Amino acid sequence: xxFSRLHAPRAIRRARLVxxxxxxASAALLAPAGAAAQGMxxxxxxxQTLFEEGRxxxxxxxxxxxxxxxxxxxxxxxxxxTLLNLALCNEGLGRTATAWGQFKEALFASKKEGxxxxxxxxxxxxxxxxxxLSKIQLVAEGTPGLLVRIDGYDIPAAALGTPIxxxxxxHQVEAxxxxxxxxxxxxxxxxxxxxxAISVPKLxxxxxxxxxxxxxxPAAGGDAGGGAGGGGGLRTAGFVIGGAGAAVLGVGAxxxxxxxxxxxxxxxxAALCPGKQCSPLGxxxxxxxxxxxxxSTIGIGVGVAAIGAGAILVLTSGRSGPEGASAAGARPGxxxxxxxxxxxxxxxxxxxxxxx
Length: 356
What we know:
9 helices, 356 residues, rod-shaped, three-stranded mixed sheet, four-stranded antiparallel sheet, alpha+beta, 9 strands
């Protein structure tokens, strides 16, 4: 147990130790009874058990284990004796501000109860703790609706600027206000008579919420089909169509070569076309050659037309960048074009329809 260390003769100190023992013994016996006499609720058996276990741990200087048990006993069955023991436990744990406040509360309760021994015991520890109290002083600039917290506990506006007793150790200070960014800092408070002055700055306005811009369309000043973007699309389509036309043109040329060769072979073969009069088998060879010739004709026509259509698309979409964009912006509407196949009895091809 921790007692106040006052400069006094050994006999006086011994007398104080006797007084402390008497006070604590009476606390152990009277704490639950006092609460019951006041009609307080709670589990008296559990409260007494926690009180006795907390006292045993405190006598063994296991303050970290003793304090929670005494605190729970006080919550279940509040009593001045239990409160005095809890204050002693926190004092032993180094929580000087907490212990000082609990001794103050026990002092007032002892005066009300008329218990002079407890009153003297509480006052002695208050006098010993007060010179050692560390404090924190919060000064805040004018932010409307400012709320300051220390370790999550709200600090009343009236307490700002006043040195507040605080337990030694690390503490988190946070300031918030509606519409402003959160400000926070960590302060390390010394063990004895330390004063930390914390200046809370004027909070910065919170950044506006990010919004996703709607895609621009013709009504908003964009041009989905013209300008640099539309020209690029038409140019790409022109290259694709032109490339496909070149491929189809190549296929048509191959079929034309095969058709010419097959028909020539049939006419030269005496067995198939004796005397230029073809047999049914020879006629079939010539018909197959004519079919290949038709495919060749259509393929060549489609290929040539596709190459031409691709060239038109590339040429009409060639203006890109600032100049092309200006020209596109000067024209109402947008460039529209589509490629359609053209197939007839004697051949085929493709055509480009639209406005440029």
